[in-house]
Amino acid sequence: MNEITVVIPTFNRRKLLQNAIDSVLKETRVPIKVHIFDNASTDDTEHYVRTAAALDPRIFYFKNDYNCGAVENFARGLASVSTTYYVPLADDDWLLPNFLFDAFHILEEYRDAGAAIFVTEQRNEEGNIETTYPSALDKIQFGLLKPSEHLRDWMTYGHYAWSSILWRSETLKCIGAPYFHVGLPSDVDFQVQIFCDFSVYIVNRPGAVYRAHAEQASRGFDMSHLQSWALLFKRLDRKVKNRRIIECREYLKLREIMQRRYQWAWNSPSRFPLTDRQIIAIATSAGLRLGDWDLAFSLLDQLKPLEFKMEIMRFYLKAVRAYCSLARRIRTW
Fold it and tell me: Tell me: domain 4-219, CATH 3.30.479.30, correct?
C-alpha cells in the first residue's frame, strides 16, 4: 500500500516538536512514517524522540553530527523519502485533523496531480488566526488545475505554506537533489519548479497551522539574499519558456506582480557589512535580473569614486548585453 513520509527537521525546539509529531501520529487511517532530522540539538530533543520512537514504530530519528544549517538539514530530510507521498512539516507547525487522510485519497484518485494543496492558517503565539495561505481564497481556483491554470494564480497571489501540502514523491525528480537550490527562499523555488511540471488539486479547507513567531527563518531575509531571489526568477524564466506554459507577454506581467510582492525581502538592509565586491554583485543582480534599478543604483552610489566609475561602465555594458539577450528571447518565445 502507498505510504506517506512526514519529514520534520528540527533544532532545539523540543516542546514545539512534540506538538508537530503528535499532530501527525493522530492519523491512523493511512500508513505514515515520521522522519525526524535533528540538526545536532543540545536540548533534550534526542531523549524525547528516541523515547517516542520506542513506543511508536512509525517514528524514525536521524541526528546530524554537527549543525549543517537549516536548509541542508531540510534537504537531507527530503532525500530520505522513499514512500509514494511526503509532507515537509516545520517543527513549529502542526497538522489539522483529516488533512493527511483526505489529501491521501485525493492523490490516490487523481493520479496526474503532483500535490494536494490545502489552506494553511497562520496563527500568532496567542493562537489567533492572522491570515491564511493562500490569502485570496475568494479569487483563486480550486479543484484539479493544469500548470497553466494554476501558475497564474500562484504568481499573482503568492506561494503556499507547504506544511499543508501532500506531495507525490515523483515531483522530486523535476527538482533534483539537494532540492533547495537557491538558499533561504527555496520553498518558493521548490513550489514553482514542481508547479510548472505537474497539475495540482487545491482544496478550500485548512490542513495545517503555520505558527508565526520571532525566530522564524523567513523573518531573516535581507539584501544579502538578493542573488538567491535572482536565481529563483532565472530558474522560473527558464522553466516557463521551455515548457511554453504561458504566453510571453502575459508571463512578463505576472513576473512583475510577483517581483513587487517579494521586493521587500531583498530591499531590507543587510544585517552584516557588505564588501564592495558583494555590493557590485548584488547591484548587478538587482538591476539585470530583478529589474530593481532604484536599488541597483543606490548600491552603486556607495562605492568609492574611482572604483564606481570603472564598475558603472562594466554595469552598463552588462545591461546592454542583457537587454539584447532578452529581446532575442522574446522574439523566439
Answer: no
